[in-house]
Specification:
Layout (H helix, E strand, L loop, with lengths): L11 E7 L7 E6 L7 E11 L1 H9 L8 E2 L3 E9 L11 E5 L12 E5 L3 E3 L6 H4 L3 H14 L21 E4 L4 H12 L5 E4 L5 H7 L3 E3 L4 H15 L8 E4 L4 H11 L5 E5 L2 E4 L5 E4 L13 E5 L8 H17 L7 E4 L5 H13 L6 E6 L4
Parallel strand pairs: 9-10, 9-12, 10-11, 12-13, 13-16, 17-18
Antiparallel strand pairs: 1-2, 1-4, 3-5, 3-7, 3-18, 5-6, 6-8, 14-15
Protein name: Chaperonin 10-like protein
GO molecular function: oxidoreductase activity, acting on NAD(P)H
Organism: Pterulicium gracile
Length: 374
Amino acid sequence: MSVIQPTSNHPTHAAVAVVAAQAPLQLIQVPTVAPAAGQVRVEVHWVASSPFDLHQAEGGFFLLAPPQLLGDTATGVVVEAGEEEDSLKIGDEVFCALVPVDKQPAHQEFITVAAHVFGKIPSNTPPQIAATIPSSFITTWHTLTNYLSIPLPFPKPSVYTPPNADAPILIWGAFSSVGQYVVQILKHYGYTNIVVTASKRHHDMLRSFGARETFDYTILEDLERLGDFLNIHAEGVGEGRVKVLDGIGSLEGSMEPLARMVPPGSLVAVLLPVIKKNLEGGVEYLMETQDVVSWKGGVETVGVRTHFYQQDEYLRNNLQPVIMPAMLEQGVIKPNRARVVEGRTFLERAQNALDMLRRKEVSGERLVWRVKET
């Protein structure tokens, strides 16, 4: 594809930035970058706000050089392509997850990044719904395949039975945006012993997604039953092992209870950063998972770093452009519920979404908002 010259009408564009921890967000102007070879420039239409945005804006986590832009998920339209890029064309509607501490995060009017981070939005999916998917989806797939070593062959063979299909797989916080995709994808690939924790009001939906056993992590009796269930079923795992995804990553809220009930020899993946409450009522961010709680003998833990998926050449080239759109189009995953955040301006919508996260108003859904005024 030939190079299309940058639009002279857009030498700069608006972006939402954190200027200091706990300070109001600000709107700043940043350069509009022309795509290099293998890159595209996308006009951003819809974005999602995530807990990672709150960690940066509120707690200063990975707030490296303010003003720092926010956002890891975007949808939009390709407006310019660099040389050697023929997988996308101008006018394609795309969705993507981006590295939120990179130079091109999502919460800005244009992004210029490698074409392989974009998938084409299926025609039956509205862009605001597509904005709920990428960051949670890549976290799900990367965690299952690379951190928990759970095979997910793609395309899935027409006849497929996974190894150790009946070994227990526990998802703590299964109604989270990541947890919902984990359950659905495991069911699609034939895993039959999917065990979940979530508030009781979400149990019916999680069973419809594929959960075999459901437990309420707020009820002590349920936690005791969960511990008994895992210990009984661990004895019949054979060559496998109990595998656990901590989709919450809270020292007190998830890791400590898991340490009390996960059987010896289990493998536990924890979404980073781990949140620890401090004595002043604030939070600390930990990147360690093994020695911060007292696990039983032989329990191995790994901390999940979502965007390290790009270190895997196959996933870098296929996860977002190929696998993600296919899983959506085929109905393997049902998108998270979307709550559209309103506001009079770009900045107001961004701030409103962040404030909703701060007030903990979100459960099992994603906050999405429009970048440009209609």
